[in-house]
Design a protein that fits this description.
Largest sheet: 4 strands, antiparallel
Order of helices and strands: HHHHHEHEEEEEHHH
Distance between the termini: 73 Å
Strand order of the largest sheet: 2-3-5-6
Mean pLDDT: 79
Number of strands: 6
Structural class: alpha+beta
Radius of gyration: 19 Å
Shape: globular
Low-confidence stretches: 2-6, 26-42
């Protein structure tokens, strides 16, 4: 029991140190969904899960399309702040710091974080779309998507670099998210597709 308490105290201290390096909004999970001590894990409702999954699949399917339109998205606030369905989780902290990521956050992260946009072992370009793992041990299970829409799970070295840089970028735009009425993901894709079609129409 004493050893267990010591380990818990050491983990808490380490998490506080990690939080200090990212920002004060990064906190321990209090819902019981990610930090589970002595009781069962809280489960989301099935309806909630199905909506998240459907929205997530849409985001992943169009990730490269959105990346190719990054200049327009990054220069238009409503596009930049289009919310992305959440599927990034850290053990002990859950979604803290990952809350309400946007298309613009992902684009900025893909461009600035070494390894977030890279080439896989088959020589294919890939974008990292999901970051899940432990900030303490570095154990992780992330997801990449290829240009043809194939999703692959991978383990990444230097995991801290990925989640810390994502959280810093995401938290940088926290206030703006409350001041702007962004597009929905569906509307953003529809709008970009319409503009793209109008540009190529004279050549058809």
């Amino acid at each position: 029991m004493v050893i267990r308490k010591m380990r818990a105290r050491e983990q808490s201290t380490r998490l506080e140190q990690l939080a200090a390096g990212v920002g004060e909004q990064w906190t321990l999970d209090t819902t019981g969904e990610y930090l589970v001590i002595g009781r069962g894990k809280r489960r989301r409702k099935k309806e909630e899960d199905s909506k998240i999954i459907a929205a997530w699949e849409l985001f992943v399917s169009y990730a490269w399309f959105l990346y190719e339109h990054r200049e327009e998205i990054l220069s238009t606030e409503r596009m930049f702040l289009t919310p992305v369905p959440l599927k990034n989780e850290l053990a002990y902290t859950g979604t803290s710091g990952f809350s309400n990521p946007t298309i613009g956050v992902y684009l900025e992260w893909w461009e600035s974080c070494n390894g977030a946009k890279t080439v896989n072992e088959q020589g294919e370009e890939v974008l990292m779309v999901s970051i899940s793992g432990s900030p303490l041990t570095g154990a992780n299970s992330c997801q990449m998507v290829t240009r043809d829409g194939r999703v692959e799970k991978i383990w990444v070295k230097g995991y801290g670099n990925y989640w810390q840089s994502f959280i810093r970028i995401n938290m940088k735009y926290s206030e703006k998210k409350d001041l702007c009425k962004p597009y929905t993901l569906e509307k953003l894709i529809e709008r970009l597709q319409s503009k793209w079609y109008q540009r190529i129409l004279p050549f058809l």
